[in-house]
Write a structure and sequence with these properties.
The protein has 281 residues and is α+β, with helices and mostly antiparallel strands. Helices cover 38% and strands 23% of the residues. The protein folds into two domains: 25-125, Ribosomal Protein S5, domain 2 (2-Layer Sandwich), CATH 3.30.230; 146-278, Alpha-Beta Plaits (2-Layer Sandwich), CATH 3.30.70.890. It has eight helices and eleven strands.
Amino acid sequence: MQGSFAWGTRSVPALVTVPLPPLQSRVEFVPSSRPGVRAGHGTEKARRAAQLTLRLCRERGLPRPAGGQLRVESAIPSGCGMGSSTADVIATIRAVGHCCSLRLTRGEVSELARRAETASDPLAFGCEPVLFAQRHARVLRHWPRAFPPVHLVGCRLPGGPVETLALDAQGYTPHERRECLRILHLLERCVGDGDARALGEAATRSALLNQTRLPKPALPELLAVSRETGGVGVQVAHSGTVCAVLLDARRPGAAHRAREARTALDSLGLERTVDMIWGGP
């Protein structure tokens, strides 16, 4: 879910993500006396994160190497809205910090990630539900309880990599900001009442709102699959091509309906992604 939300006297872009613990980035930092941070192709943001972390170590008077080598391994597809770059960056900050005995709060990790990426996901907070201003590294809302459990039946739509920063920079109209407020109220209800339908409606409204920014031609078909299989809504990557049908995991017959949704998505020729229960205690 993504939109524009109040932060003090202004509105800023913010999002709620769907962290997927099985999909991870692993980073090894090998310190070196040779100045500079070296990394493989496609890991420029992780390299910047390492440089920023080493600089912070210097500012705090901690012993640190002159440079080092990053080894990044990721199971997360890139460019499709699954947070691959933020996962690389967060893992890098933690790896370099561990090497230098640098202790960081989750907020400090998020700020370093923002400086490395310009906009980043709230992966430093793990699976805790937060409304996060991705361009300011600030938590606007922290929910004390988990979202109700939903079964995610995911797919990937056709299309190439998406430039996240270009999408994040687009402004929201007053009408769209009012819709974002309604979405936030639905999230409050879903946590307070443990209401999976409210979560599904919030995700669906956000997906529809996103159609003016990154249109997904298959969205009507995804909504039809959700209706026909008893889903509570759909979730989309607002800066990517991955989507999922959401089903209330606590409702009797949820596993059977998830299989029906998977069959329906397969019949549309959509590439499979996740198939798992997310949320809950």
